[in-house]
Amino acid sequence: MIKIICIGKIKEKYLIDLINDYKTRINKYHKLEIFELKDSNKKEEAKEIIKHIKENDYLLALAINGKELSTIEFKDTVETLLTNGNSNITFIIGGSNGLDEEVINKCSKQISFSKLTFPHGLFRGILLEQIYRIFKIMNNETYHK
Fold this sequence. Notes:
This protein is α/β, with parallel strands linked by helices. The protein has a single domain (about 1-135), classed as SPOUT methyltransferase, trefoil knot domain (Alpha/beta knot). Helices cover about 45% and strands about 25% of the residues. Helix 1 (about 15-25) packs parallel to helix 5 and helix 3 crosses helix 5. The radius of gyration is 14 Å and the shape is globular. The chain starts with a strand and ends in a 7-residue tail after the last helix.
């Protein structure tokens, strides 16, 4: 299963529609769950994030200081994890102040999609689009470039 643990609830209908569309598309390839947690301070957010982490989760922090990957490198990372028997790949998106060090330290990798700052709802849509894209690539299916 792929899990996305994220801080903040999306309120904008167009972003909810985008997220639901990609969630439906991804679920044709692999089970996906999204856990939306309440905005708070970093320490409280960390406590809530940790409650949603299971022992067998492979944790990937999405952080501005993480390693930037191309789409193919991102695909290779996820594909390797899936073929090596990682039952849960968990992406963690922090709140507006980022992720607490306690959460970062639990993660196996930090990934950055850009040095730019994105609104959380839009970034969630970007992450889902990239996950969908990598499943299309892994299945040798065409997808627009």
